[in-house]
Structure formats: C-alpha cells, structure tokens
Amino acid sequence: MKLTISHITEYRYDEPAQFSLQRLRLTPLTGIGQTVVDWKLTVEGAKPEVEYDDQFGNRITLVSLDGQQDATRIIASGEVETQDLNGVVGSHLGFAPLWLYLRETPRTKAGKLTKDLLRGISGDSELTRMHALMAAIHKTVEYKPGTSDTETTAEQALERKSGVCQDHAHIFIAGARALQIPARYVSGYLMMDGKNEQAATHAWAEAHIPGLGWVGFDPANDVCPDARYVRLATGLCYRDAAPVSGMRIGTPGETLTVKVSVASQGQSQSQSQS
If I label 97, which of 8, 18, 212, 223 is the partner at 20 to 30 A Cα–Cα? Predict the structure, then answer.
C-alpha cells in the first residue's frame, strides 16, 4: 500500500519568542515493512542546525529559533510504501542494547494496577501473552481524548480507565517489562478507516519476541500494525519518540495546532478529482 502523508505542526507564541531549540523526529526511515518513496521536512520560523541518528536509531533534525518570532511552522510530508507483516519488524538493530528495553521510566513503571492486570494474562508463549495483554488493555482502558496528557503514567491511565493511544502504549510497555519481555514505544502514522484528517499522530508498542524479533501491538485498536501504519521513531517511552520536543526561552505561553492527513494513493487521487 502506498500512503500519502501530510503533518503540519504550528506553534503560535503569546509573545515573540527569544530562543527555542527543538528536536524533530519527523523523518520515517526505510526498513522492514516500509519503504520511504519521497519525504520532505520544512521548517518556517526556525533554522535547521544538524541532522543525526540518536541511540535508538531515530533520525533527528535539530532546529533553533534565535530572534523575535511569533510562530513556528513545521511541515512533514511525503509518500511511504508499506506491507502487512502482522506487526513483525524483525531483528534488533541500533546502538541501544536489547536489555535497555527492560528499564522502566516514570511513565512506564509497573505499579499495583499494572500487576493486577497481569494476573489475568496467560498463554503458552511470549507471543500469546503479549496478544492477551493487548486485548486486556483494550478492554480495560477506554479511548477517551482529553483525560490524559504527555506526562500521564501507565498507572494513572489504569486508575482512570481512560486515555489515548499514548497511554495504551505505556501500559503495554509497563506490563511487558514486568513480565521480563523487552518493550519499546513507537510513534508514527495510522491511516484510519473512512477518515483521512486527524488531530495527532499515532502511538503503539513493540515487544521483542524470541524467534521473531520486534513485534508491534496497538492496544488502542487491539490489532498488530499492518499496511496502514508508518513507523516514525522508537524509545523507552513517549519522551524518547515524541515527534517534536525541546525547550524555549522568553515566551510565557504558546498555542499548538496539529493537522495530520494519512490516505492511500487511491484515496488521494479520488479526492483531488472530486
């Protein structure tokens, strides 16, 4: 499947910004299950400084804002050809050792509620248990925007029994690591059925399964990623894989607007002709 993606992120500052430094994880890489046909990253109101691969293998573009700016606009767009591999990404690669993905973070610390959830998880293999964990999270935690934020932990989302895809991923990672299965957070794009325009990117998790390597699990939708998914970045939790992160000096507040569009090539052509 060939997917056409447009992702616009705009920051409008309450007062002119004096300095800002941002890490952009907005460049998908060609790998197992996806081939980047064309991709362009444009930044308005800030200056690209350097591009590099981090310890998780993510392509990072570092941009700075130095001067009086009222807004910053980041545009990522292109085409990615994808395959349905039932979520299997394959062997572990990169600078970070596999054991690192057993390390908990504040967002993925397994507390009482995570351990209670795991008591109902069974199966005769790691793969079976991860499928059971995904299904249990999907059943327990309702997808409900506005009930969490980027700092929400797995335990807090379980206590509220609601959250967004980021929270589902953090709970899955906390549970997998508690079972001594390496797990990581994935940010990316998802083509939704009957809906091209979206208000945010998507997030899911991957667990390292013996004999298969990394396998994706999306508890928000209770499926393993297929040809509708495009991987952007990975890490121990949201902090390592956020599409945009950084720091700023000299602004008391900002308004963030995000517009994401993901469509198959056939859908894109049909819309342009209508």
Answer: 223
